[in-house]
Backbone:
């Protein structure tokens, strides 16, 4: 695909060059007086020779001087070569005009044209005039070549940035699977000690979650309805181990027919965090989870009681929320709003993440 695109760009560049030079060469024909019966071919030929000189200067810089000298930090050699080329071409133009291109001047006493030399002029006038034109041509060649190089460098930079982002996202997904699995296995391990039947049920629920993680997590985006089903299964798994003093309320308003694309597992770390820090073994606790879609955006709201873990508590790896921030910056830069924090009384934690899914 990239090779075909490169060939297309080369063909387009050649076409633009051809059209540009055709316009330059035919300029005298375009601006000539329509009511003049005799076309001044001498001026036209002179114009062509000057244009050919400009072409030589343009492509000598475009293909040789600029890439081999200027871009390789050989500015002095670049300037010297252009001075020599300009001097040689300006002198050749003057010699050709003075000796090789006599004007055809109409003679009213004769029916035909007589060949006469143009009136003498100072050579420096013509040399200076052609010198300015050649300098302008060099500047044009330099502008086009630098623009082309900048575009190439910018394209390479974007490709490198894209590759780096994809590699980082892949690394983040690889981190997420073990992190999520570790937390879930800790929950099942706690169940085994006092309720074997619930532990078995939890293993079955875990198998459903792992199926989603094995297949959907390897994609950049998944349908929102599948992600919502994954969240429902996860919350169901968490409910198994909860005691009676813990209240869990969910409000997932995602249609089963919703095909809005969302990056997988972006909300699960928020929900994990709520169960990890929002539940006390002895005190009354609660977790409220809301997920809904409206006006081209998806919003996840979580409110939970706040029981922060002590430094001695080593459950989980602590990478969940930092990972969410990294993924949001990589996938949805400038397209999300994440409000989170602890209330003033330090008894409640809130998190509200809104993601714009209209464009990618």
Residues:
């Amino acid at each position: 695909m990239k090779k075909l695109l490169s060939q297309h760009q080369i063909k387009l560049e050649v076409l633009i060059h051809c059209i540009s030079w055709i316009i330059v060469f035919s300029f005298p024909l375009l601006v000539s007086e329509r009511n003049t019966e005799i076309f001044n071919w001498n001026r036209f030929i002179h114009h062509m020779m000057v244009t050919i000189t400009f072409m030589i200067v343009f492509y000598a810089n475009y293909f040789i001087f600029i890439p081999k000298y200027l871009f390789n930090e050989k500015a002095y050699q670049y300037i010297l070569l252009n001075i020599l080329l300009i001097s040689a071409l300006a002198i050749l133009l003057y010699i050709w005009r003075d000796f090789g291109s006599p004007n055809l001047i109409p003679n009213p006493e004769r029916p035909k044209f007589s060949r006469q030399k143009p009136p003498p002029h100072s050579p420096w006038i013509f040399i200076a005039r052609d010198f300015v034109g050649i300098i302008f041509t060099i500047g044009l060649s330099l502008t086009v070549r630098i623009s082309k190089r900048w575009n190439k460098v910018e394209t390479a930079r974007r490709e490198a940035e894209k590759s780096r982002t994809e590699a980082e996202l892949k690394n983040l997904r690889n981190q997420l699977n073990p992190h999520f699995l570790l937390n879930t296995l800790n929950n099942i391990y706690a169940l085994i000690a006092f309720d074997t039947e619930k532990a078995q049920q939890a293993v079955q629920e875990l198998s459903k979650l792992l199926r989603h993680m094995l297949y959907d997590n390897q994609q950049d985006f998944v349908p929102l309805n599948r992600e919502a089903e994954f969240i429902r299964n996860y919350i169901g798994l968490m409910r198994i181990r909860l005691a009676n003093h813990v209240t869990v309320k969910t409000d997932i308003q995602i249609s089963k027919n919703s095909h809005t694309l969302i990056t997988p597992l972006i909300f699960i770390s928020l929900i994990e965090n709520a169960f990890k820090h929002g539940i006390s073994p002895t005190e009354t606790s609660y977790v409220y989870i809301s997920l809904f879609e409206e006006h081209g955006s998806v919003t996840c709201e979580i409110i939970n009681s706040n029981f922060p873990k002590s430094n001695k508590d080593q459950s989980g790896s602590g990478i969940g929320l930092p990972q969410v921030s990294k993924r949001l910056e990589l996938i949805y830069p400038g397209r999300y709003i994440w409000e989170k924090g602890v209330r003033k009384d330090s008894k409640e934690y809130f998190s509200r993440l809104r993601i714009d899914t209209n464009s990618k």
Notes: The first helix runs from residue 2 to 25. The mean pLDDT is 78. The chain has nine helices and nine strands.
